[in-house]
């Protein structure tokens, strides 16, 4: 497949890394910054341009700029799309706006990926509008399956939901990891040992949750001896409202996705 990314930032780089590792694709990127173009060409062997080339109907164009930049980008490439399949990974911006900015183009799929795509462990929500050819929906899923798991979404609002869970989710996990590393350093460990202890704990706990027939609440209870040490830690987390704060943060994330859609999909 010939796949061109418009925007060569964090998320495009993560997906390109996964696609390059899979091999078998012609990969291109259009990116404003020369240093990023050079790095992407060096790291993943992609052809990197400062301006969009002309596309053809058997190509895939991935819109990977910030939502606020999308209208200008779409209007800039509308005349040279050549009927290509367009995948948008931008938060918020809806298919109807994309189609309008792309002169009525209808081959559009929305995707909400996440950065673990970089190591082939991404999770993506994919929304293909009703009326889109099944083959196009399948192509979008196939591109994202190259870098991880794919969840098909029946409604466009599902993109907002996925954003709050897995799209932004890696940041929540890194936030928790940061907090635990800081806590380990406070216990007296040097930074490298703290990192090894914490990442090892995350790896092991996730793998155990995957492999165990038990649900995660039971796995947590199994660590928590009556009258023991974990009980104290969890009691403090509950007292401080950690679970409620996480749920509220996810609600706010989803609300921002909807808000971005409303703000940016109007023109
Ligand atoms: N980061 C993430 O974890 C995720 C991001 N997304 C979505 O992916 C999209 C990209 O996000 P992210 O990679 O983080 O953003 P970045 O800002 O890292 O990447 C976008 C890149 O595109 C460049 N750019 C801007 N305008 C153009 C243009 N006209 N032509 C070519 N390149 C251009 C930007 O330059 P400049 O910096 O100068 O503007 C920047 O280098 C967003 O819409 C976001 O919602 C979705 C899921 C997860
Ligand atoms: O923070 C953002 O807006 C993007 C979308 C999902 C993850 N990063």
UniProtKB/TrEMBL annotation:
It is an enzyme of class 1 (oxidoreductase). Pathway: Amino-acid biosynthesis; L-proline biosynthesis; L-proline from L-glutamate 5-semialdehyde: step 1/1. Pfam families: F420_oxidored, P5CR_dimer. Keywords: Amino-acid biosynthesis, Cytoplasm, NADP, Oxidoreductase, Proline biosynthesis. Residues 156-260 form the Pyrroline-5-carboxylate reductase dimerisation domain. Its EC number is 1.5.1.2. It is found in: Cytoplasm. Residues 2-92 form the Pyrroline-5-carboxylate reductase catalytic N-terminal domain. It catalyses: L-proline + NAD(+) = (S)-1-pyrroline-5-carboxylate + NADH + 2 H(+); L-proline + NADP(+) = (S)-1-pyrroline-5-carboxylate + NADPH + 2 H(+). It comes from the Bacteria. Belongs to the pyrroline-5-carboxylate reductase family. HAMAP family: P5C_reductase. Catalyzes the reduction of 1-pyrroline-5-carboxylate (PCA) to L-proline. This is Pyrroline-5-carboxylate reductase. It comes from Crenobacter cavernae. The lineage of its organism: Bacteria, Pseudomonadati, Pseudomonadota, Betaproteobacteria, Neisseriales. The gene is proC.
